[in-house]
Amino acid sequence: MNGISGQDFILGCSAIGAGLAMIAGIGPGIGQGIAAGHAAAAVGRNPGAKSDITSTMLLGQAVAETTGLYGFAVAAILMFLKPFS
Amino acid sequence: MGGISLTGEPDFMIHGVYQFTLFGQELWITTTTIGLLIISLFILILAIIANRHLRKASEVPDTIQNIVELAAEMLEKMIGSVMGKNGGRFFNYIGTIFLFILFCNIGGLFGLRTPTADFGVTFTLGIFTFLIVNYQGIKNRKFRHFTSLFEPFPILFPINLIGEIANPVSLSLRLFGNMVSGVILMGLWYGMMPIFVKIGIPAFLHAYCDLFSGAIQTYVFCMLTMVYVNDKME
User: Fold this and answer.
1) CA-to-CA separations, B90 to B40, B217, B227, in angstroms, rounded
2) Mutation test of the interface with chain A: which of B180, B217, B221, choosing the one with the most A Cβ atoms within 10 A?
3) Owning domain of residue B33
4) With 0-12 CB in 10 A as exposed, 13-18 as middle and 19+ as buried, what is B59?
5) How far is CA B70 from CA A83, B66, B75, B149, in A?
6) Is residue B71 part of a domain?
7) Is any Cβ of chain B less than 8 angstroms from the Cβ of A60?
8) CA neighbours within 13 Å on the CB side: how many for B198?
């Protein structure tokens, strides 16, 4: 720990925290994949309703994406605004 | 750094352009303001051209009339699919924010800093949605607008209240997060990559971050606004 100032330590910990915050990306990835898979199955079953299915899928995926974006917002604040240093 | 040229620092922040003081408060004209002004002027010019052409609309439409009719019909179909018979009353508002957000999101392609990558802009749009939702709720459901917060059990009141207040925040944060992630990605790519990958490859990134993501988020913002408003219309 010699030669590491408090500022540097806080900066390094912020970078680690930003990386940890992006673990939040796992959830929306799985959720969007499930939604897309079920939409593909639905189109296979009923090709006539493709446009309705697509719009519903996009809306659901966008809502599922929100939690990932919260994680991204935290990571971006830690990396670029540096609130603790 | 072994092949990576760090000639320019990555640059994706909002910059102040001009500072002035109003009522003792320090205010800034930022790159976001300039982008908003340019896009507003652009939409205004488009509207004037469309208006000029539709004044002498003909039975057999020419090019511009065709495009305008196509856009209007597409918007009408989108609004009608969610709001049904109430769609006509909200066509003006939804159409306006649809065009505005769409051109703001695409603005990154034309060298502007994407105006919607500023939380001030998206939160304003979210506040508009919140005000319209509550105005429609009080107008259509009178007292039931407030008593519905206590359903199904009175003990759920705090959760319902937070759920109502979180709507505009999540709505605006979704648009902001998507656009700012594109802006940061492009800024890092242009700022930190060696010169030979700055040619050609950014076109694909722009196509995803600005065009695809921007169009999807525009659609989602308008759809969710309509869904929230439609919930209060019954």
Assistant:
1) 21, 19, 12
2) B180
3) 16-57+80-231
4) exposed
5) 48, 6, 9, 41
6) no
7) no
8) 13
Confirm or reject contact between B211 and chain A (CB < 8 A).
no
Q: Any bridge partners for residue B18, and if so which?
A: B29
Inside any domain, residue B66: no
ipTM of the complex: 0.79
Query: Could you say which architecture CATH assigns to the domain A8-81?
Result: Up-down Bundle (1.20)
How far does chain B reach from its first CA to its final CA, in angstroms? 63
| Closest-CA residue of chain B to A71 | B177
Task: With beta carbons under 8 A apart, name residues in chain A contacting B223.
Answer: 55, 59
Q: Does B75 touch chain A (CB under 8 A)?
A: no
| Domain ranges for chain A | 8-81
**Which of B78, B174, B183 is most worth mutating to test chain A (most A CB atoms within 10 A of its CB)?**
B174
Q: How many C-alpha atoms does B219 have within 13 Å on its Cβ side?
A: 19
Q: From the DSSP assignment, how many helices (H) and strands (E) are in chain B?
A: 8, 2
pTM for the model: 0.85
B64 within a domain of the structure (yes/no): no
Structural domain includes residue B69: no
Residue in B with minimal Cα distance to A74:
B177
Q: What is the pLDDT of residues A34-84, one digit of tens each?
A: 999 999 999 999 999 998 898 889 888 988 888 898 898 899 888 888 888
